[in-house]
Structure prediction request, 192 residues.
Amino acid sequence: LALVGIYMFDHHIFEAVDAIDPSWRGELEITDAIQWLVDKKYHVHPYIHRGWWIDTGKPHDMLEANSYVLEELTPAINGYVDRDSQVDARVTIEQGVEVFNSVIRGPAIIGKNTRVVNAYIGPFTSINNDCLVENAEISRSIVLEGSQIRNISRRIEDSLIGRNVVIHRSPIRPKSFKFTLADNSVVGLLSE
Prediction:
């Protein structure tokens, strides 16, 4: 059995995982858990999904999946957008959002209670709840909840930004980059 898609289980999968032994690799194998369900006469059947599906194991794949999801969203503006802002038709702005003097190009979504000030967002950008984007530009990216992007002079693009991340310009000298990066991160810097 190859891993070729999505698995959906009910609570019996936990019984199966508790019952199986680790493989020669020292891991609990999904195929062994499925076989346990079959052997115990639980209902196991395949389903052919006719829509799109992407294995989101790599950052580029996450961004591609994000673009598909954004294309399918129903646009709505449920937050505040001031007169100095431009918001495309294919944008979803959730409740509690405040947008001031900004441009938002769709498809894009701005999550609840996020503040956007003097910013350019989109296209193909998802900003989660409780974020701040101020004096910055971001496109083709995903920003998770609680993050702040402030006073960045260059556009951020093709990026995955986690929860409670703060990206800001610092006046501290000497001018340098400071990073805390997860395993297998890739950072591209513009040489000046």
About this structure: The domain at 70-168 is CATH 2.160.10.10 (UDP N-Acetylglucosamine Acyltransferase; domain 1). The longest strand covers residues 91-93.
